[in-house]
């Protein structure tokens, strides 16, 4: 495709060189440049892409997309006010605007995005609409699983995935939209048919700086919704009214327990392996057995039902989809090796998520509630004491351990957690994660529940700069086998 065609809708300052040059691909990593590439010199979290422009040129880049006023001899340069937004727009054009051929739905929130996305997919499947997923665990594109590096990839990758979905004759895409993606304009220009807001609590403040900025970033998804789309909003959340206000250009569909919600629970019967739910919806009532345990997952199901209604599915299809949704790895995943106590692996890695999983488990626990958790290194340090306080307050006994310490000393992370612990009587520090899990399983007795929180679906641990294999559920199964 000609560069002139790619940039025809862009706002740009100037062009150096011949805009009729042919572009074979759009690349934001100079290591992946090949002859004919358009290299977008984006500013990353640790490096400025402009630093790598000479390398890109050496590898045959046909043109450079940049905010810099620097000129590189004998290379076509397009200077724009915002290179990330420009990259998103040219990526869509390069792949012939695949989003226009798909029912695009987005899900955002601090917690619950992955589970809600898979609930939506199950509804779409029940309605005969083949769809792909872009999200945390894997991207599912044209029936194939692609390992996810980021929850929401960079714009060229998103549009490449969407194009593959269209080529495979898929009809829809469900996308987890992270706050990083919104801040970095990865979904800029994408028109969503429906978008769900689940919740907002402390997370990613190492990136956003404060909760207000985090909220405003999440709001971007809703400020840009077109008038024929629907915002599905958890009205029970503290920040719901703000999201409703910024979504005024779209239709609003609310869910939750508070008065006036469009979708609200009539009855909820929480059981160990499922929930029996009746929802009041604008078209009447829906009753279903939700095979994903946990009270908070009823709220995820309400969000998914809202997306289903917004996309035109009848009640019976939504019910069938919710009743057949599969358990997502690492999300309230029950590990059963025949033991007489319950073991649950969950991705809860924020204060709010840890509180939710412990409260949900407490409802169904006859004996003691045991918690195993740690906090990640090189991330928001402020949440560490909060999570320590929550675990020690809500669990009968807590094993504080390592998560992904990365380049931080694990003992320093644990020390930060302990500053939130009012008294150490019902907690124990075990820095090695496998040893902590083993101690918790050995400590448990009949009727107890052990929550192993923080890593969920992750099958690795990052210690220093080394990525080692480690899977909480796999480890728990092996250790439970040793106890027999």
Structural write-up:
The model has no long low-confidence stretch (mean pLDDT 95). This protein has 484 residues and is α/β, with parallel strands linked by helices. The strands form 6 sheets. The protein has a 6-stranded parallel beta sheet with strand order 7-10-6-11-12-13, sandwiched between helices. Strands 17-18-22-19-20-21 form a 6-stranded mixed beta sheet, sandwiched between helices. Strands 1-5-4-3-2 form a 5-stranded mixed beta sheet. α4 packs across α11 and α12 (351-364) packs parallel to α13. 33% of the residues lie in helices and 22% in strands. It has helices spanning 3-6, 53-58, 83-94, 113-126, 155-167, 179-183, 205-208, 211-223, 240-246, 296-310, 315-323, 351-364, 383-394, 410-418, 433-443, 472-483, and strands spanning 14-16, 25-27, 37-40, 63-66, 76-79, 103-108, 131-134, 138-141, 144-147, 172-176, 194-197, 230-234, 251-255, 264-270, 275-281, 284-290, 333-334, 342-346, 369-373, 397-400, 427-429, 449-453, 460-463, 466-469. It has 3 domains: 3-90, MurE/MurF, N-terminal domain (Udp-n-acetylmuramoylalanyl-d-glutamate--2,6- Diaminopimelate Ligase, Chain: A, domain 1, 3-Layer(aba) Sandwich), CATH 3.40.1390; 98-323, UDP-N-acetylmuramoyl-L-alanine:D-glutamate ligase; 333-483, Mur ligase, C-terminal domain (Protein-Tyrosine Phosphatase, Chain A).
């Amino acid at each position: 495709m000609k560069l002139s065609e790619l940039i025809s809708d862009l706002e740009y300052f100037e062009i150096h060189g011949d805009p009729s040059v042919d572009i074979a691909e759009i690349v934001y990593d100079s290591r992946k440049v090949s002859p004919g590439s358009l290299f977008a010199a984006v500013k990353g979290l640790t490096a400025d892409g402009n630093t790598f422009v000479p390398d890109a040129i050496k590898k045959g880049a046909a043109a450079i997309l940049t905010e810099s006023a620097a000129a590189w001899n004998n290379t076509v340069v397009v200077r724009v006010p915002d290179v990330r937004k420009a990259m998103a727009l040219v990526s869509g054009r390069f792949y012939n605007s695949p989003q226009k051929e798909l029912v695009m739905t987005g899900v955002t929130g601090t917690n619950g995005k992955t589970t809600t996305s898979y609930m939506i997919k199950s509804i779409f499947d029940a309605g005969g609409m083949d769809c792909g997923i872009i999200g945390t665990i894997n991207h599912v594109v044209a029936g194939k699983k692609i390992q996810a590096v980021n929850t929401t990839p960079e714009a060229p990758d998103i549009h490449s995935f969407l194009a593959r979905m269209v080529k495979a004759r898929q009809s829809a895409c469900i996308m987890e939209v992270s706050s990083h993606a919104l801040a970095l304009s990865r979904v800029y220009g994408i028109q969503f048919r429906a978008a769900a807001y689940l919740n907002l609590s402390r997370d990613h403040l190492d990136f956003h700086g404060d909760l207000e900025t985090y909220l405003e970033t999440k709001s971007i998804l809703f400020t840009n919704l077109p008038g024929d789309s629907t915002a599905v909003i958890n009205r029970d959340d503290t920040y719901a009214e703000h999201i409703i206000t910024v979504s005024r250009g779209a239709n609003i569909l609310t869910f939750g327990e508070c008065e006036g919600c469009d979708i609200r629970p009539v009855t909820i019967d929480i059981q160990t392996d499922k929930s029996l739910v009746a929802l009041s919806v604008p078209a009447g009532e829906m009753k279903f057995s939700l095979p994903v345990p946990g009270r908070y997952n009823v709220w995820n199901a309400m969000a998914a039902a809202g997306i289903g209604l917004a996309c035109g599915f009848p009640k019976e299809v939504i019910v069938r989809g919710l009743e057949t949704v599969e358990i997502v790895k690492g999300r309230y995943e029950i590990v059963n090796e025949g033991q007489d106590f319950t073991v649950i692996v969950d991705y809860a890695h924020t204060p709010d998520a840890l509180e939710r999983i412990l409260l949900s488990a407490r409802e169904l626990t006859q004996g003691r509630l045991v918690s195993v958790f740690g906090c990640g290194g090189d991330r928001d340090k402020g949440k560490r004491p909060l999570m320590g306080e929550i675990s020690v307050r809500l669990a009968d006994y807590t094993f504080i351990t390592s998560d992904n310490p990365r380049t931080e000393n694990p003992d320093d992370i644990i020390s930060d957690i302990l500053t939130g612990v009012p008294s150490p009587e019902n907690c124990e520090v075990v820095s090695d994660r496998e040893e902590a899990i083993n101690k918790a399983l050995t400590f448990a007795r009949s009727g107890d529940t052990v929550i192993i929180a923080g890593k969920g679906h992750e099958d690795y641990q990052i210690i220093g700069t080394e990525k080692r294999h480690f899977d909480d559920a796999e480890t728990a199964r092996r250790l439970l086998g040793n106890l027999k």
